[in-house]
Amino acid sequence: MSQPQLSVVIPAFNEEGNVATLVDEVLAALRGVVPFELVIVDDCSRDGTLAVLQAAKARAPELRVLAHQRQSGQSTAIRTGVKAARAPWVATLDGDGQNDPADLPKLLAARDAGPADVKLYAGWRVNRQDTGSKKWASKWANGIRSRLLRDATPDTGCGTKLFERAAFLDLPYFDHMHRYLPALMQRAGWKTTSVPVNHRPRGAGASKYTNLGRALVGVRDLMGVAWLIKRSKLTDVRELE
C-alpha cells in the first residue's frame, strides 16, 4: 500500500457489534478521497471484537489491527494507534459507532482551508444522541472545564478529531488526556478549531463510562491540566547563522 496521508485511529473495547460497520463506513467515506490507513486498537476486549476485526482485514487492505495485552484505557489506546500511525495527520473516532465517519472529509476540508498553526480540528456534536442525564452531565462538565482552562472549545468529549501526529506526540501523556486535547494543544502554542459534526445513537453494546465515574476522574484531571497550563513556558527560538 502507498504511503498514507491520513491515519484513522479507533480505540475499541468490547465493540464486536459495532466495529465491522465502522470499518465499512470509514472505507466508504475515504476511499477515493485521500490515501489512508485505518488503525484499530483493541484494548484487551473480552468479547469477539478481535475476531470481527480479523475477518474485516480480508475486505479492507487499509486496516491494521493492534491488540493491547492488558486493558489500558481509551487514551492509551489512542496513543498506541498514533505512535503506530504512518501518516503525518491522524483522525480519531470512538469505537462505539456514535461518531460518523462521513464527517472525516469535512474535517480534512477545514484543515486544507485553515492556517498552518491550527494543529487540531475538534468535532462538535451539535445534536447529541445521548440520554438526558448524559447530556446534562456533559454540559455541566464542559462549562466548568471551559471556565477553568479557557480553551474556547464547546465540546471536548467528541471522539471525532483531526490533528497533526507530531504535535500530538509532543504533548504530555496521561490517562484521560484525550478529553483535554484542545487545552493541551493550545498550551503547546498551537491553535485549535471546532467543527460541527454528526452524532448517532449507539448501535450495539453498552457505554463503558458512568456519569459519576467520569465526574470523579474528571475533577482530578481538570486540576492537573490547569496546573500544567499554569506552569508552562513558551518562547520563540532563533538559530544563529
From TrEMBL:
The keyword Transferase applies. Residues 7-168 form the Glycosyltransferase 2-like domain. GO terms for cellular component: plasma membrane. Keywords: Cell membrane, Glycosyltransferase, Lipopolysaccharide biosynthesis, Membrane, Transferase, Transmembrane, Transmembrane helix. GO terms for molecular function: undecaprenyl-phosphate 4-deoxy-4-formamido-L-arabinose transferase activity. GO terms for biological process: lipopolysaccharide biosynthetic process. PANTHER family: UNDECAPRENYL-PHOSPHATE 4-DEOXY-4-FORMAMIDO-L-ARABINOSE TRANSFERASE (PTHR48090:SF3), UNDECAPRENYL-PHOSPHATE 4-DEOXY-4-FORMAMIDO-L-ARABINOSE TRANSFERASE-RELATED (PTHR48090). This is Dolichol-phosphate mannosyltransferase.
